[in-house]
Structure formats: C-alpha cells, structure tokens
Amino acid sequence: MKDYLTLHLRELPYFRALLRAIEARFYKDISLPGPALDLGCGDGHFASLAFQEPLDMGLDPWWGPIREASTRSSYQDLVCAEGDRMPYPSNYFSSAVSNSVLEHIPDLDPVIEETARVLKPGAPFIFCVPNHRFLDTLSVSNGLDRIKLGGLADLYRGFFNRISRHYNCDSYDVWKERLKKFGFEIEDSWDYFRPAALHILEWGHYFGVPSWVSKLIFGRWILAPTRWNLFLTDRLVRPHYDCDPRSPEGVYSFYKARRIE
Questions:
Q1: What is the three-class DSSP state of 115?
Q2: Where do the H-state alpha helices sit in 172-249?
Q3: Cα separation of 215 and 92, whole Å?
Q4: What's 33's DSSP letter?
Q5: Domain segments of the chain: what residues?
Q6: Quick one: DSSP state of residue 104?
Q7: Per residue in 124-152, pLDDT tens?
Q8: Prediction pTM value
Q9: Phi and psi at residue 136, to the nearest 5°
Q10: CATH number of 4-132+166-259: 3.40.50.620, 3.30.70.260, 3.40.50.150, 3.40.30.10?
Q11: From residue 170, how far is each of 108, 110, 135, 138 by CA, in Å?
C-alpha cells in the first residue's frame, strides 16, 4: 500500500501532512467518473498524491495556487474562478471532490447550489470538513476550562478558528439539511481524526513556524526532505496514521453525497 504519510511529510509541515495523508487514504477505493471536478484544488499537491490519474478539472479562486498547480500533473485543465460562478454548462461534470475546502467559504450555500448545477444527475460529490467537535476538542481551551478560565478559553477558540480560516464546522444534521436543500443526498459518511491527532495539528501551527518561514523565503515547506531529517516527525505522527482514523470522537467528517436524479 502507498505510504501517504511519508509522501506528504516530504513536502508539507508535519501536522498538515498527517491530516492530508489520512484523507488521501480514504480516496483510494472511491471511483470518480469523468469528467471530474476538484472544487478548491489549491496548489494541486493533494491531488497529485491522492489520485492515480489526473483529474479533468481543478478550480480555485486564487491565481497563486493555480500557477503552482500548473507545474504538477494533477489536472488535465485548470481554471481560476469563484465556486459560486463556475464557467461550465449545467450537468457538465460526472463527479466532484472538495477536500478540506468548504469550511473556508463564508457564504457557502451559493457554492453548494452551483456545484449541484454543474453536476450531472446521479453524480457523486465527495468532500471532507471539520465538524462541530473541532473547537470543543482543542487542548489549550480545554485546559483553560479546567482551571475555570472559560472566558479565555472562548477567546482562544475564536483565535484558533480565525487562524484556521474556518467558517463552517457543522454537524451531520446541518450538512444533511444543507445538501438536501440543493438536491443532494448523503450516501455515506464517517468521522475521523481523533482528539490526540487534533492536538498534534493544533500545536503544529506554532511549532511549524520555521516551515512557514521556509515557504515564504524559499518557496518550499521542507528544505531537506531526507529520511534523517524527517525521522523524529515521522515517529511523532505515524501512530496516528497507522491506527484506524475513524472514530465517533473524530473532529473531521468525510461525506459521500450524490446529486439526486
């Protein structure tokens, strides 16, 4: 089996690599009939590792990631466009994915409605998002709650939500109603990324500052993607990758929806 964790650690900060590696593993048994759309494709790094063949179309609203994606072989074509105004005819795509994107969109309903428009009846729509447990599971705010500093705990949750650029961390019931409103039904879903894994991601935002500086200066998150340089981070995160990431306590949710015929 492909070692998604090692592949991601070579190019991403360790906390992001862990999350993306777990998500990539979910896609290995999912069929995406073409033409397939990646909604919010970013720089194409995830698609280059998660999918065996290039997807037909990558769409993102920012030119920087689109230019970077064009240097990879992740997509047959790329377009810079907003998710609520896609330059495609109705019933064009046979499938769509959106990996950890929808939580970052403030006005989400027009994007879901537009996704329904460009998908053919019966087309699968696969996506994952943080759920309603995300903020309540953060280690720092929970520690502040335990010592009766609830006000500071709420401030920290708000701060972490802002640096994560999250607008939609919703429960299954919220997603079910949102999707139903625009002609989708959920065929399967599961929660993943246990609390201990979230704490690695949470603290990685602070310990990962050197990687951010490296990306800013050199254009690369990891300057030396060698085995010896990645040994300690691999030891830190691999137990969370090797175990079954699905959990009723998971702070992310993976959805397999379908446009109703």
A1: helix
A2: 172-181, 195-207, 209-218, 227-242
A3: 36
A4: P
A5: 4-132+166-259, 135-165
A6: G
A7: 999 999 999 999 999 999 999 999 999 99
A8: 0.94
A9: -75, -5
A10: 3.40.50.150
A11: 12, 17, 11, 16
